[in-house]
Amino acid sequence: MGALLMTQASSLAIIGSPAGTETNDVAFETLAGGNASQAVHDLEALRAQMPNDPALLINLGSAYAELGQADRAEQCYRAAMESDVRYELELADGSWVDSRRAARQALRDLTSENLALN
Questions:
Q1: For residue 44, what is the enclosing H or E element?
Q2: Repeats (TPR): which ranges (predicted)?
Q3: CB within 8 A of 26, min separation 6: which ones?
């Protein structure tokens, strides 16, 4: 299982296993292009087919965060952390991280950003 991922902290990653990667569209290019509204639209449509996919949930959370909807972003990140689906994510720096750990980091980044704004 694999996909492109963008987290709240704007770090980019490729999700997959070291042996090979199957890519799913989780609106990476849309998010990277700065179109969070379109990403939410696309990801909410995909969510019906893949409701527990951590990459989709993390990217959806990132899109909501970009739109200033921190509560919805938090819900998505928590859903990714609690998902029964779990796999390793390859981060832009080449390191590998568990999808739950990536979701926790996105949630921490969201919380830190919100604290800094207050």
A1: helix 36-47
A2: 54-87
A3: 3, 4, 5, 43, 46, 53, 55, 56, 59
Domain at 3-117, CATH homologous superfamily: Tetratricopeptide repeat domain (1.25.40.10)
> What's the rounded mean pLDDT across residues 32-58?
93
What percentage of residues in the chain have a pLDDT greater than 70? 71
Domain spans of the chain? 3-117
Distance CA(51)–CA(67), nearest Å, equals 21
pLDDT over 80 at 87, yes or no: yes
Q: What is the rounded CA–CA span in Å between residue 90 and residue 86?
A: 13
How far is it, in rounded angstroms, from Cα 68 to Cα 3?
Answer: 24
